[in-house]
Amino acid sequence: MTAELTRGQNHPLPGARLEIRVSAGTPVVAGATLGDEDGTVHGVEQVAHPGAPTLPGLEVSRQAAADHRLAVDLDAVPDAVHRVSVLLALPTGGRGPARFGAVAAPFVAVTGLDGAEVASYTITGLEAESAVVALELYRRQGAWKVRAVGQGYAGGLAELFADQQLPQAHQLAGSIHEAVASGLARSVPAPPAAAPAHRPDQGTAP
């Protein structure tokens, strides 16, 4: 039976290999950070995002989408990692919404490899925020649990990363949005080339 979490609630995880499913109703960026016991993220190499989608025990989507599936293997996560924070952000600079309050509440679920839901969380209460820590998987006395977080940031990814003490917060946020923008651009077919304009023969001057 699925545990339907509310903000702040936690639930034990039955196994190490999991999938995190995201349904947002609008294209979002999905990523994750690897933190220590205090939740501190010590460098950009501890952030999985579209420009660097794979870390030990973790793989995220390569571009913005309304639906995501993130693969997690907690047995492969480094021993120094005690917190895996799953984050969502709205792409910047496009035609989409600029704040989560303008879209339906995102839904996230943790499932086993068989697809059975372990826990789910609908992220309600967001307004001006454009980035949010949806869930965190955390290690406590050798066992892993999932917690519904729902902490939003009006300052977007830069503010979120800064809150996790990442030194290069603003630079990384900018590079992620650049990678997402280029990915969205590649996914849009180029317009057909215009046919050359017909130019009537000028003839030879007498």
From TrEMBL:
* Domain of life where this protein originates: Bacteria
Task: Report the leader peptide range.
Answer: none
Q: CDD domains in the record, alphabetically?
A: TerD_like
Provide the residue span(s) of the region labelled Disordered: 187-206
User: Locate the TerD domain: which residues?
Assistant: 64-162
Which Pfam families does the entry link to? TerD (PF02342)
The Swiss-Prot or TrEMBL record describes its family as follows: Belongs to the CAPAB/TerDEXZ family.
- This one is known as TerD family protein
